[in-house]
Design brief:
250 residues; alpha/beta; 9 helices; 37% helix; 16% strand
């Protein structure tokens, strides 16, 4: 992801073109279902969630997979780049096997959701809209969780930080969470880009998107679990370790 992103940023012409190319290469949206997709799992309900109360609001597409136990905890699953929900079935199955009711969304620009191209701003908005819906389903804060994989980990950290900031009562979107789980994610987008380019390239000046999980982690007051594998190919071990240290310090 980061290598293609930096290459696109360095070769794009003009500010608007650079930003568009950066967003395209950051998310790498693949519209087709992957070859391993065998259809919607039994028990999953598809529906759309408006991202605002506006009459002309765009919608995100969602899957709701309730657990057999009506008292089960719930989790909001936020996926990473490239694949839409059709490419996430095995992860959703794992979460449900762990005993969760699962809400999973496609950001705008992915799958059946509205929009053409995601951005850092829109994916954060989409996560908030999904959280509002989940809070209405599960009234107990301690029994609702946020889970983000890869780039979705940065989206999850942003959501968790904003909920912690509100303190539980200051906003309609302040429904607290029982915990944050992030898997195979990174510190900042610029750090990811620096891993695959020359040290003299001013990556921080070229990127309009930050996905700065490091600074936001200091605001997260809920319990945090950072999951990653030692043999992970896409996120440098030092970035995972730094993020884990930041989470441990909260």
């Amino acid at each position: 992801m980061a290598g293609a992103l930096v290459l696109g940023a360095l070769t794009a012409c003009g500010t608007a073109a650079l930003q568009h190319e950066e967003e395209r290469l950051t998310f790498r949206v693949f519209k087709e279902a992957p070859g391993w997709y065998a259809g919607l799992p039994s028990g999953v309900r598809e529906f759309d969630i408006p991202v605002s109360s506006s009459a002309d609001a765009q919608h995100i597409h969602a899957w709701w997979w309730p657990a057999e136990n009506p008292d089960a905890p719930t989790v909001l699953y936020l996926h990473g780049t490239r694949w839409s929900l059709t490419g996430q079935v095995f992860r959703l199955e794992q979460l449900r096997d762990f005993g969760f009711s699962v809400l999973a969304i496609d950001y705008r620009g992915f799958g059946k959701s509205d929009g053409d191209l995601p951005s850092e701003r829109t994916v954060y908005e989409d996560a908030h809209a999904a959280w509002d819906w989940l809070v209405a389903q599960q009234p107990e804060p301690a029994r609702r969780f946020i889970y983000g994989h890869s780039l979705g980990g940065a989206v999850a950290v942003d959501l968790a930080a904003s909920l912690s900031d509100y303190g539980g009562n200051a906003s309609p979107r302040s429904g607290a969470a029982g915990g944050l789980i992030i898997e195979s994610t990174f510190t900042t987008l610029a750090d990811m880009a620096r891993e695959v380019t020359y040290s003299w390239v001013p990556v921080g000046l070229l990127l309009s998107q930050t996905f700065d999980s490091m600074s936001k982690m200091a605001k997260v007051t809920m319990p945090v679990l950072v999951v990653h594998g030692a043999a992970g190919r896409f996120v440098a071990p030092r970035l995972r370790q730094q993020l884990n240290a930041a989470a441990t310090a909260t």
